[in-house]
Amino acid sequence: MTNRFGLEGKTALVTGSGQGIGKAVALELATAGADIACHDLREPAETIAAVRALGRRAFGVTGDMSDKSAPDRIVGAALAEFGRIDCMVNNAGTIRRAPAVEYSVEDWDLLIQVNLTSVFRCCQLVGKHMLERGSGKIVNIASLLAFQGGVFVPAYAASKGGVAQVTKALANEWAGKGVNVNAIAPGYIATANTEALRADATRSRQISERIPADRWGQPEDIAKAALFLCTSASDYVHGHVLVVDGGWMGR
Question: I need a labelling partner for 231 at 20 to 30 A (CA). Which of 4, 27, 85, 159 fits?
Fold first, then answer.
């Protein structure tokens, strides 16, 4: 059973791993035995040090996902360093909040590029490598807003809905060729992206009251799900959007 959830001898590329969910995922995969290519806007020094402290190889690669050439550089660097990528976790993302009638085209374009287009491009690049080898695991980070519309976040909702659909589309093509493509839809997780919500006493209370688990999620809750989807324990899981939300969607 332990081997099914182990990643000894495997390598992983985790985008947006400098903090929050990405950092937690990188450490969870490293704890299971994987060497980690740690990406973020700036060198994720703390994450790299923490992975190395676990006895695993780690190196940093920087890149702004609003730059259309960033995925090529990031994936290329990981392949050059490790020679292979067994697991890819597309976590990098951003958010902009504004009423729909005031939402700028610039913010819309930014969100779609960072949260959706770069995810597809990373999948495309890593997927080609994995298809040639006949194996690999890709995990995309979606959101509850892949199912719901949210308020004041039209571009974020659109991008995360797109992530869920891209995940399914790629799984349809690649499942029979040894490559698993799945997604995780986090619920309300205590990260930098939710600081504004948690700072709003009324909204924070409303959210907390609806979560059956009676707490906001932690990055580690998502990391554990990512580990499952990166190991052989999930070999027959394809095109699934795994909701990790403390029961929110079932309420």
Answer: 159
Task: Write the CATH number for 222.
Answer: 3.40.50.720
User: How many independent structural domains does the chain possess?
Assistant: 1
Burial (CB < 10 A; 0-12, 13-18, 19+), residue 128, is: exposed
Please tell me which residue in 103, 156, 188, 236 is annotated as part of the active site. 156
156 is catalytic: yes
Is residue 139 within 8 Å of residue 184, measured between CB atoms? yes
Q: Each residue of 9-25: pLDDT tens digit?
A: 999 999 999 999 999 99
CA distance 93 to 1: 33
Instruction: Return the closest-CA partner of residue 27 out of 1, 52, 10.
Output: 52
Cβ atoms within 10 Å of 147's Cβ, excluding its own: 16
